[in-house]
Automatic annotation (TrEMBL):
InterPro entries referenced in this protein's UniProt entry, alphabetically: Bact_solute-bd_prot1 (IPR050490), SBP (IPR006059)
Gene3D superfamilies the UniProt entry points to: Periplasmic binding protein-like II (3.40.190.10)
Lineage: Archaea, Methanobacteriati, Thermoplasmatota, Thermoplasmata, Thermoplasmatales
Alphabetical keyword list: Membrane, Transmembrane, Transmembrane helix, Transport
Protein name: CUT1 family ABC transporter substrate-binding component
């Protein structure tokens, strides 16, 4: 058979537009393709045991950086509300460290405030709407999952007890429905006070359509110690948008999950921390167990493009473009690595994890802790003195980024999924990777020209839309 060639790094310079901020990125990867038709597998079975040690850790560092993609929800306010101070008071309450810590315990979403990680987080909430003010009503839309509705209801009930002159009407709806509701209210010149907890992608439609109010981030968070990488996202909003229009509220961040028992059985004593090490370990595991042991979210829909976004940024790319140098090198690497993918990768989606315990794969790159209860799964931190939550905190402190909240993110996801299917699922030739990605770039530019205008399409082609950096 043709032996796979180890990925090698080469040096070069690449400019990435991060909204209005340009940073110089160096060191991109270059990889040689594998011959799938001649790849031979052995038949040694994966070990089966009910005592497998399952670990979670921050994952590998790319050729350019080790930053992590932020998932989860942001909190925002609809513009035009008659009593914005009442809305701000609700937001300040929901962002309080004690509320954040309780939220993590009930929902799995980790806090954005350092104070929430202490044994006794502050319960002090900034005073924005005085008790002497007239009674106001605030509508609170949230796209949080159905399983968490009772918890949110309890939080709101406690808020109303603490602020009897603010009545809150809670509405649990999908992010898409929320966008429709807000759009209808604003275009109808409504003066309702509306606060929303909405997926970080869906907020883009509301922002770019001008439906969000500028908010005072410092007053709402009251300087309680927001994690610096999160706070920096606010600074970028001010730089690019002229103000802060949404705050990161419910954080979900990708981590790597491993069956450490299976790794040890193959002679691997440490989890991989670079992509080169991951590639080497993937081959070792495949040789030992006779089947691919690396799993990814290849289900399609929003799952696969989100996974690829993480990888492309770590390779120095701008995923929105599909085909800059970093994007290409990321897909070349994944093409090689996919020879060692678990068969489960084609069906894995949000909250996929059972294969770790049932021995159908031993590494999950990446998964989202907010999707499942890791304690019930028996997941432990690879750094034994830490908690799983602190692993997430370590990932955030290492640097974060958000996907550009463009209103056409859905089309981008569709096209990125097509690129994945052509390159990985259908195993197109290695040499065709740049042209496949270039084709999706052209398709999105054409879509923007047709459905928006030529100016938006030109801005896209010039790299205006890119990851929002948080470091």
């Amino acid at each position: 058979m043709d032996n796979p060639i180890e990925p090698k790094e080469k040096k070069g310079n690449k400019l990435i537009a991060i909204i209005a901020i340009v940073v110089v990125i160096v060191v991109v990867g270059s990889f040689v393709g594998l011959d799938y038709k001649n790849l031979v597998k052995t038949t040694t079975p994966t070990p089966t045991t009910s005592n497998n040690v399952l670990y979670v850790y921050t994952g590998v560092s790319g050729p350019v950086n080790s930053e992590h993609l932020l998932g989860g929800c942001v909190i925002a306010e609809m513009k035009g509300g008659s009593t914005p101070a009442a809305s701000a008071q609700l937001m300040a309450y929901l962002m309080n460290p004690a509320i954040q810590k309780a939220c993590e315990a009930h929902t799995g979403f980790i806090p954005v405030d350092q104070g929430a990680y202490t044994s006794s987080p502050s319960t002090t909430v900034p005073s924005i709407y005085a008790s002497s003010n007239a009674t106001a009503t605030v509508t609170y839309y949230t796209s949080i999952s159905t399983a968490d509705e009772s918890y949110v209801t309890g939080v709101i009930n406690n808020f109303e007890k603490a602020y009897p002159n603010i009545q809150v009407s809670v509405s649990f709806i999908t992010a898409a429905s929320m966008v429709e509701e807000i759009s209808s209210l604003v275009t109808g010149n409504s003066h309702a006070n509306v606060v929303m907890t909405i997926d970080n992608l869906d907020v883009g439609v509301l922002f770019y359509d001008g439906y969000l109010a500028s908010i005072n981030a410092a007053k709402i968070t009251a300087g309680e110690g927001v994690i610096s990488s999160i706070s920096n996202l606010n600074n970028y909003e001010v730089s690019e948008f002229g103000g802060v229009y949404f705050l990161t509220q419910l954080v979900n961040i990708p981590l790597v999950w491993v069956d450490y028992t299976a790794l040890q059985g193959a002679g691997i004593t440490k989890v991989p921390t670079t992509y080169t090490q991951l590639y080497t370990d993937a081959k070792i595991l495949d040789k030992k167990y006779g089947v691919g042991e690396i799993n990814m979210q290849g289900h399609g829909g929003a799952s696969t493009p989100t996974e690829l976004y993480q990888w492309m940024v770590q390779f120095g790319g701008n995923p929105m473009m599909f085909n800059d140098t970093g994007d290409i090198h990321a897909m070349e690497y994944i093409y090689n690595l996919s020879a060692y993918f678990s068969p489960d990768y084609k069906t894995s989606y949000w909250a996929t994890y059972t294969g770790l315990a049932s021995n159908t794969y031993s590494m999950m790159y990446y998964q989202w802790p907010g999707s499942v209860n890791l304690t019930k799964l028996g997941m432990k931190s690879y750094n034994s003195t830490d908690t799983v939550t602190n692993e997430s905190l370590a990932a955030i402190n290492g640097g974060v980024f958000l996907r550009s909240p463009v209103s056409w993110i859905g089309e981008w996801q569709t096209l990125m999924d097509k690129a994945w299917t052509s390159i990985v699922v259908d195993h197109s030739s290695y040499s065709s990777i740049p042209s496949i990605l270039a084709s999706q770039n052209s398709a999105l530019k054409s879509f923007l020209a047709t459905n928006y205008n030529q100016n938006v399409a030109d801005q896209y082609e010039n790299g205006t839309y890119a990851p929002i950096e948080g470091q």
